[in-house]
Amino acid sequence: MVKLRLKRCGRKQRAIYRIVAIDVRSRREGRDLRKVGFYDPIKNQTYSNVPAILYFLEKGAQPTGTVHDISKKAEVFKELPVNQTSKNE
Q1: Helices and strands in the chain, H and E counts
Q2: Which top-level group of life is the source organism from (predicted)?
Q3: Which among 7, 24, 63, 85 is most buried, taking Cβ atoms within 10 Å?
């Protein structure tokens, strides 16, 4: 299973996080499948590769809580197509 989660980068006391698609069994700094953005909590900056995030979400990747909140603020989920089950109702 694939998850969208944060991967810590930067130096001591100055963390920057990459948003990556990674296998669940990998450790935090493990090998990622693809980098899909970054998050700087100190400057409160975010960059998201929206097409890549949508691709992984459509394939069934689950975002972690923090990545979900970051993506929600960037309005990534508004670009997701509506579930087919809700179309039939």
Answers
A1: 3, 5
A2: Eukaryota
A3: 63
CB 55 within 8 A of CB 4: no
Residue 88 clears pLDDT 50, i.e. is over it: no
| Rounded Cα gap, residues 5 and 58, in angstroms | 16
Q: Which domains does the chain have, with CATH numbers?
A: 2-74 (3.30.1320.10)
Residue 29's CB is within 10 A of a number of other CB atoms, namely: 10
Q: What is the pLDDT at residue 86?
A: 36
pTM for this model (two decimals): 0.79
Q: How far is CA 40 from CA 2, 6, 23, 58, 64, in A?
A: 23, 11, 23, 26, 17
The secondary structure of 26-52 as a DSSP string is S-TTS--SEEEEEEETTTTEEEE-HHH
pLDDT digits (tens, 9 = 90+) for 41-70: 999 899 989 899 999 988 888 999 999 998
